[in-house]
Amino acid sequence: MRYPEATVGAVILNSEAKVLICKSNKWNHKYVIPGGHIEAGESMEEALVREVKEETGLDVFEIELLGINESIYSESFQNKKHFIFVDFICSSKSNDVVLNEEAQSYEWIDLTEIENYNLEKFTTKLLKELRKGKKSRYKKEIIYGL
Fold first, then answer.
1. What is the pLDDT of residues 10-53, one digit of tens each?
2. How confident is the model at residue 1 (pLDDT cuts 50, 70, 90)?
3. Is 61 exposed, middle or buried (0-12, 13-18, 19+ CB in 10 A)?
4. Cβ burial, residue 130 (10 Å; 0-12/13-18/19+)
5. How far apart are CA 43 and CA 85, in angstroms?
């Protein structure tokens, strides 16, 4: 029997309040936020820092919980998997992304531009909620310049 897999995802903001999205073959060539599995004995925050560094080369800070979601056998993913997504919002001082083999390209985008990109549905929902202000208590000053 397979169990749900706990994962972390990072909504990374740069100094211009733009969000990093990465195109992934694993997600039907759609854009997603960086992230991955939580290893045994690793905290969620440690997993986030490690996964972001492995996938993008970026160091992140000001890490705050953004939300929890799940994907049960999504047609968007390459395999039949049940994921529990624990998503965080964080910042990076650098825009210099170095992708590993898990992503094929990346973009730094403004939240007003998300309709212009082929985002995976969970990423779309998360970024739209962030844009609408449902999650505005997290990094409000960075996202909205307040």
1. 999 999 999 999 999 888 899 999 999 999 999 999 999 999 99
2. low
3. exposed
4. buried
5. 14
The number of domains in the chain is 1
Whole-number Å distance between alpha carbons of 78 and 24: 10
Residue from 13, 35, 38, 39 nearest 24 by CA: 35
- Distance CA(11)–CA(17), nearest Å, equals 11
Give me the CATH number covering residue 87.
3.90.79.10
pLDDT in tens, 51-109: 999 999 999 999 999 989 888 887 777 677 788 999 999 999 999 999 999 999 999 99
Query: Which residues form the domain of 131?
Result: 5-144
